[in-house]
Write a structure and sequence with these properties.
Blueprint lengths: L2 H22 L4 H8 L1 E7 L6 E3 L2 E3 L1 H13 L2 E7 L2 H9 L5 E7 L2 H6 L7 E3 L1 E6 L16 E4 L3 H11 L8 E3 L5 H8 L5 E5 H7 L6 E6 L6 E7 L6 H16 L2 H10 L7 H13 L1 H14 L4 H12 L19 H6 L8 H18 L8 H12 L1 H13 L7 H7 L6 H4 L9 H25 L6 E2 L6 H5 L6
Helix pairs in contact: 12-13, 12-15, 13-20, 15-16, 16-17, 16-20, 17-18
This protein binds glutamic acid (GLU).
Glutamic acid binds next to β5, α6 and β10.
Length: 482
Amino acid sequence: MQPRVVTAALALSLALLLLLGACNGGGDALHRIQSKGELKVVTRNSPTTYYIDRDGPNGYEYALAGLLAADLGVELEVKSAFTLDGLFQLLERGEADLAAAGLTLTEQRSRLFPHSSPYYRLRPQVVYVAGTRRPLTVDELPGRKIVVLADSSHVDELTRLRDEGAAELHWEEIDGADTMELLEMLDTGEAELAVIDSNEFDVQRSLYPRLKVAFDLLPDQEQDMVWYLAPGADNSRLQAYIDQFFLRLQADGTLEQLRDQYFGHSTGISRISSHTFNLNMRNTLPQYKDLIRQVAREYQMEWQLLAAIAYQESHWDPLATSPTGVRGLMMLTLPTAKEIGVSDRLDPLQSLRGGARYLKNLKRRLPASIEEPDRGWFALAAYNIGLGHLEDARVITQRQGGDPNRWQDVLERLPLLQKSSHYRKTRYGYARGVEAATYVQNIRHYHNILNWQDISDNKPLPPLKVEDYLPQVLRDTNLSAL
Ligand code: GLU
């Protein structure tokens, strides 16, 4: 092409671009975010998305959005909507650049809003109260009082099922942003069934031990969770950027780590043990809470973690004694008690202090290559099984091509310490690896429930600007590696 023709072609495409920008009113969204130095995200306050805990704002979506803001080199501003309708209105008005709120991809929404590629998969589930009639299919829903979040993807699903003539369906739509309200309604008998996402139920079911999954609303069908972008701007570059960002998080394991961190502890605990925990939390914990808080402060750890360990060890019984002679709230062995200067293991204060000190010692002695938050889980495993066996499990992990510094990888191999084909080749030999794995997962689970209880006791949530706070996960993630 002649230079003049090139110039003319360039000028034409520039004009076209400008025209396009003017038409959709907002210009290039990515450029706007970068030049303003701020990413505005609307979300909803719920256990699976965004909440405030003692370290400040936290949650799966908050962590992801924070990573994106850091990656873009801009600040994050979070707005929390109180209903799904409110959330989409905010987005529509362009008061947020994107919505990150555990949102399902639906046809209707995708007609109105551009969206990212999926970063999570989920299933809508029908939840019921144990002891009442359990429906097994959509055909058994008519006549039952069903609740769903207003404007949620589940309203679409139910409408479609009804229109397809699957069943004469009726349901009540609850204005809100947190599915916990629905579970609360089931628990108090105000409703019989609720439709909520699998990840939401997994995280919250421990607070409602009587609630169970009746069936998957759409059998054999997973749905995509996506971020929606504000319409009215040119989003193509922002969209591409976010898709690339998710690909990178997928490739370097961050997505999986976040999933494990926010949703991973909830599986594998029976309904019975959740129920017992809830009872004990109400009846027994109050007697020891002050003491636990005091010791946790002394050792600079979260009181919920110390309480969770003490529950796993002794069910908060200071006189607990096992057949093997471990005793007290923190179930210390005699040699351990001597080593850390505990003279009376049945004294609750001494026992808690001893346990906290012992855990800190173990944590300090772990290899420096293990980083937080995994380091904390490794220390718990060592508390149960000892550093030597834990090291064996790390060696097996490495031999099998796993990452010995990653809790999830080592957790999967702990049970191998019970198999002779493996423990014959380890340094410290046989160990009850299954028990150690369960031990840590239980503590994470109890810790989570205690956190939740604490947070819901200390509401409400102000909308806030959050660049001063980064949740643990952001502090622990190597951003330069992104
Ligand atoms: N994923 C749902 C939606 O996008 C919200 C959560 C729920 O209702 O379970 O509407």
